[in-house]
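Annotators were shown the component list below and the corresponding predicted structure, then asked to write short factual statements about the assembly.
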Amino acid sequence: MIALQELTEELVTANHVLAHERVVDSFGHVSARHPEKPDRYLLSRARAPQLAEIGDIMEFTLDGKVVGAEPGKPYSERFIHGAIYEARPDVMAAVHNHSPNVVPFTVTKQKMRPIMHMCGPIGSEIPNWDIRNKFGDTNLLVTSMEMGRDFAKTLGPHTVALMRGHGSTVVGRSVREVVFTSVYMELNAEMLIKALAMGEVTYLSDGEIAAITKGRAGFTFERGWENWCHRVGRPFIPRDKTMGEGFSKTDT
Amino acid sequence: MIALQELTEELVTANHVLAHERVVDSFGHVSARHPEKPDRYLLSRARAPQLAEIGDIMEFTLDGKVVGAEPGKPYSERFIHGAIYEARPDVMAAVHNHSPNVVPFTVTKQKMRPIMHMCGPIGSEIPNWDIRNKFGDTNLLVTSMEMGRDFAKTLGPHTVALMRGHGSTVVGRSVREVVFTSVYMELNAEMLIKALAMGEVTYLSDGEIAAITKGRAGFTFERGWENWCHRVGRPFIPRDKTMGEGFSKTDT
Amino acid sequence: MIALQELTEELVTANHVLAHERVVDSFGHVSARHPEKPDRYLLSRARAPQLAEIGDIMEFTLDGKVVGAEPGKPYSERFIHGAIYEARPDVMAAVHNHSPNVVPFTVTKQKMRPIMHMCGPIGSEIPNWDIRNKFGDTNLLVTSMEMGRDFAKTLGPHTVALMRGHGSTVVGRSVREVVFTSVYMELNAEMLIKALAMGEVTYLSDGEIAAITKGRAGFTFERGWENWCHRVGRPFIPRDKTMGEGFSKTDT
Amino acid sequence: MIALQELTEELVTANHVLAHERVVDSFGHVSARHPEKPDRYLLSRARAPQLAEIGDIMEFTLDGKVVGAEPGKPYSERFIHGAIYEARPDVMAAVHNHSPNVVPFTVTKQKMRPIMHMCGPIGSEIPNWDIRNKFGDTNLLVTSMEMGRDFAKTLGPHTVALMRGHGSTVVGRSVREVVFTSVYMELNAEMLIKALAMGEVTYLSDGEIAAITKGRAGFTFERGWENWCHRVGRPFIPRDKTMGEGFSKTDT
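Structure shown to annotators:
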């Protein structure tokens, strides 16, 4: 299990990486479940991710109450995170974003689906949550547990759910995984828009998505993480480079 | 009320931010109404926004006459600003730009409308002013009060008006607000072009736009402003972080 | 008349600016007619424009023979420049480029025409030269005076001519002008591709193009030039800021 | 023949250049055949190309066994390289990549073909290998010699083969050549997508592609290489600037 201090540092790095890779701009956020207290999560105070520092990371109860130090106002949309951690014991980290190539898919009938192996784990079925269905005309922000839970219901067992006219939220089993999925979701969207303009598209099959998802582990995540740490000038703390199940036919 | 010196510094920052965020290139300009004399406005001398300095900020009467120091030639299109301040007492700042993803909307029948919550305040009805309608074949520049007033008439009570074959002008109640709206207008245009290529688009509803606009205040503006100041290496002067009316269902 | 040394410095700056603004990459070149000897022109040795230095600038006769120092191999396509200076006494500078948004227009029937005032001077009629028409299957390079003259014939009195499967060449009355036109041609192409995807496009009228072209002078060029010099870290030597004929209805 | 140490340095530079020019991101790799032992090849350990250092370059037998120092885990897809060196004695270097504008062509029926002279050598016939045809649902990675050989069979005598839902692999007679081809393949794809959106496209003819390919030699490669070395801060070691056969009608 990752120690609290190490996770906090990793969360700061994740903030900077997501900003650098254009998954978030001045808005969007990334959280992690508390490594020792599963009913708590860690999230920066309301601040542009690129600027988040260690002292900005706050602790919250699942229903969004601040625990301990409060270096500033919390994100008004923290309920997205809490509701997901409540509904999904498997989720250890989440990214809420306005990833610019993904947003167009939230406002059209065109489905976002993976076309390239790096992007496979976003899954073949990506729901699109419309806040208007239950809450009518709002400012589209998820600012209560009721709203967060409604979103979590749409997310269900999936890795990503779109949010109409807003963006998306991605979940994972670790900070590195969720950042990885988010970066490649944005790339998949960018490439898919171009592919769709050229005619019928061959998507990854369900079997391929399953094989990719099963085989994606430390060996893959570390490669991206080291590179991204370097780009944003954050220390790279190596971790396990295990290959996932069935990743290679030759190596172990 | 913001002091003159602070506003002048903020205007310089706004120039740099707009250049960095690709709202303006070597051309385009941002002005603010004088904080003490409502019949005056502040605007850089004719210079690429990225290069504007404190000593470049000039004071003008609403009809575009220089008051006081004249560190260089004024912008030939300053009449856009004066005519708007004359017609719209609510407007405290304005950005004239050639935002590259917005220009295509000025020369096609396709309407620019907001598809994403951050961009809502550009409004659902964005007029497109064609200088040719009244002035025939020109170099498209707004170089007299007559032209500026004609544009201001088309702008009417709106937040943005496009200018055919030219760009657009955005207005707001503060420098931070008008910069914010301009940055997200460009992003909206970029994303909308992609969405339109994929089929029918669901725009924000009028009720959503109203809710977003009402709720957008310091809590939102400060987040972007701090980030942009950091990116262009300008000091960030914190200001009030009030949430707008109805912004959150939980926090105040 | 600009002195030889100043022009040589300006040519180096132009090389760096065109690379920074993505008009040229490792290839493409910019030349100037010799300020004292109209039958000579100045052009860097064959080198990526971003790297061109004072010592790289060579002098050529109009038919492409080296005069004086030869710091390295000359560009194999210098005949584009010589043939234009031979045919067009009004031309004082030329940019040959593979501007990436312009290339698509060289291989489709879709005409490139200006949609935005800054880009007006590329003109409403832009010919597309196909080397294959006269020379059959080649490597598409203009490597002889015969080829250069054939291109110059297609260019005729225009400001730009496209080159099928290759790029384009832009001409002007000064280095600053030709760089300006080249940068805004690339922007026009980028924006036009997006506009065309959204439906019927309103182009600038011939009257507008004429008014813009007549009014474009030092006041406009200096704004871009100062900004670009700053971006590439080259000294900015101010020159005359005269407004062109009919530029403003108010200022002079 | 290039010495081993010089080639190793060049390979490190190639890694950095490909990352800078967006041919590879955290993934993808470039190899070179051993200059003295044709049944060996050189390839970095599994690491983001931007970070590859001299000490990361490993030596492999053609069937992917490590020879000598093992500074870390090898790339799981090294079999792409080995199988190509085995099947193609003419190949001295290879780039496997997920070049983002190329991927859309791997999942649509739209053929990628060169439209611009710099890109001609990718060839008029570019096969698209689908791993699923022989191996069914996999994670799409080429992780055994059997898979590598199947890919090499599809590549055949070509310079590039696409890999469905994955990327492509480019081969060449030197590191500089293969990097050059890879950079301009990405550019060709970017421009072709835009051209296709505007109507029927005129591709380079087979005769033109042949002429370009024959004429492309040191004079061309050195121009790009010097520029790219400069951009990534790596030393530029000049090599021969010979013009290829028929490159110029005037110069030699």
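Statements collected:
1. Chain C has a mean pLDDT of 97.
2. The beta strands of chain C are 29-33, 40-44, 57-61, 66-67, 93-97, 128-129, 160-163, 167-172.
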